[in-house]
Amino acid sequence: MFTDIEGYTALMQKDELQALSIRKKHRDIFNTATGKCRGELIQYYGDGTLSIFKSSIDAIVCAIEMQRAFQEEPSIPVRIGVHLGDIIRTETDIIGDAVNIASRIESLAVAGSILISDKVNDDLRNQNDIETKYLDVFEFKNVNQTMPVFAIANEGIVVPELSEINGKTKERIGKSFKNFKRKAAIVLLILLGFIVTLLINRNGDGNNDTLKDLSIAVLPFDNMNYDDDSDVFTDGITEDIITHLSKIQHLQVISRASAMHYKNTEKSIRQIAKELDVNYILEGSVRVNNNQVRINANLVDASNDKNLWADNYDNNLVQIFKIQSDVSRDIANALQITLSDTEESRLSNEPTNNPEAYTVFKEAQMFLHRGGGKVEELKKAEDLFKRAIELDPNFCRAYVGVAETYLEYIFWGRESPKKMLELASKPALKALAINANDGGTFGALGAISYYKYDKETAILYLKKAIEINPSYVGAYNKLAWIYTFEGNLELMEENFNKVLKLDPLSPKYIGDMGQTYYYLREFQKAIDKMDEALKVFPKDNMLVWMKASNLSGLGKFQEAIDLYTARSVASNTNWMLGYCYGMVGNHEKARRILEYQLNKSELVYVPPYMIATIYMGLGDVENALTWLEKDYEVGGQGLFFWGLKQDIKFDVLKNEPRFQALLDKTP
């Protein structure tokens, strides 16, 4: 907590005795209230204070008591700012980002007000005697993150107007997000109703199972129109239901990627549930006819194929969001469900009130989710997300879509990370300004921080994303990578196991886990994992590549070469194949691949790290270092640069000053 007396310096110049009297009253009130609330004074700053508390609640109770006392005559114009975070304590002071942020928040305050960060506000949600009001999202000077700021709104406490706020910030990035009034998505509340009913039935049977035991897969809804345009719309309905369900605490929701494997499947409900390891299946259909839409939903207990709930909903297509509100109200009333304020804000949020923008957005997602990193598909996704924004400038998820598209360019090595991160930051921050309670926004911001090597900020954002969307696969994936580069095998496996529980049929994430094992030098574990996955996906090029990469880690270069050349893509031009050829002494083939990659880099972006790797296979240390330095100049290839310290390919460079200089620039 930071406090200071507004206008104290001017008062000292005008009336020194009055100023000293006011400061004495300020300190007396401060000391009394702080001691009562388990606080500890760290330092006086002339007219201000820095203190710490055992909890956010203690700090806010103390701040309210102080402000009320300060307003008694003779009143003292005090500003207060509070933030929650880790600190480093010295003999005389405390330091850290949390201290800096608290100071910046206090600088926004006006006399009589108490401003707090979103982290403090989250801690206060269940405190009925403490009221807060959202102000805006701010980007603070010298702090590499944006932050929603709230004001304590209890009786007698001043809540500043935005026009009154002038503090240590950059230009404010956006205005207050909308307070959406409508209810949650259609089948979401159908399922919520089912959960409540199920719990009632379980309690009646004496069964003590809780929500945390529930797991569900939403199968792709059937398109009853059988045309491509309706197919995109229908898949969009499925995806939105998954997104909404993933916000429910204690409910494990299988990701879209794994669920879509069962589109048009002939497999039984029981077989699908067994393969996905879930207890319940939600299936349905969508029909669009002359601008009318009918949605059917059916919830099944997979253990006995028993239908637990089913219904149809009809309205015109323009009123698709009204359907959601009507169904939500009907189901909530029927089951006497009372949603908390948090559920209202996280589950009842309409993506947009513009049906055309929504349709364009779903088409953009289709191209983004195809995977494989094809530039033409990423470009289509980017253009469509931007078109959705043109149709609705307050479409938060469309801004997130733009940011995620730019991040895919980085993941697949299609563009300079430095360039793409600059492009991705702007829409991600805009999304945050529109809606500070969207999991996808924090996931995108976490990924951006991850690629920028800002580990602490990345963890903060990713954990916030998981708090909002407990089944957010991408956030667990990024956390797993961060713990990999910390050398923490236990936390890496914990997060990746969560990823694979939520997305069991995603070769991409299985391959990712294989690469993390590579950096942790658990090569055989990775090979075993890839062999297991290749039984399910025998021709998946990424899994084959990951197995070959780990074989190279064991020094089994010829076995790796056999796998690389057996792939259906880049079987003779892959950079790791070039490295392995070099390591077995076949320099001619290695140089052919090197020449191919060098020529390609003159036409399109090729991560310099890949070229450096081929030079390592050829034993050309100088050129390897040169290309690693080039890679850093363009922003680094994300995980590759994070992994330099642990990458066995570069062990021979550890005593090279140029290599050490690169390591000093990475986490």
From TrEMBL:
It comes from Snuella lapsa. This is Guanylate cyclase domain-containing protein. The keyword Endoplasmic reticulum does not apply. Residues 1-106 form the Guanylate cyclase domain. The keyword Ribonucleoprotein does not apply. InterPro entries: A/G_cyclase (IPR001054), Nucleotide_cyclase (IPR029787), TPR-like_helical_dom_sf (IPR011990), TPR_rpt (IPR019734). TPR repeats lie at residues 473-506, 507-540. The chain crosses the membrane at residues 184-200. Keywords: Membrane, TPR repeat, Transmembrane, Transmembrane helix. Pfam families: Guanylate_cyc, TPR_8.
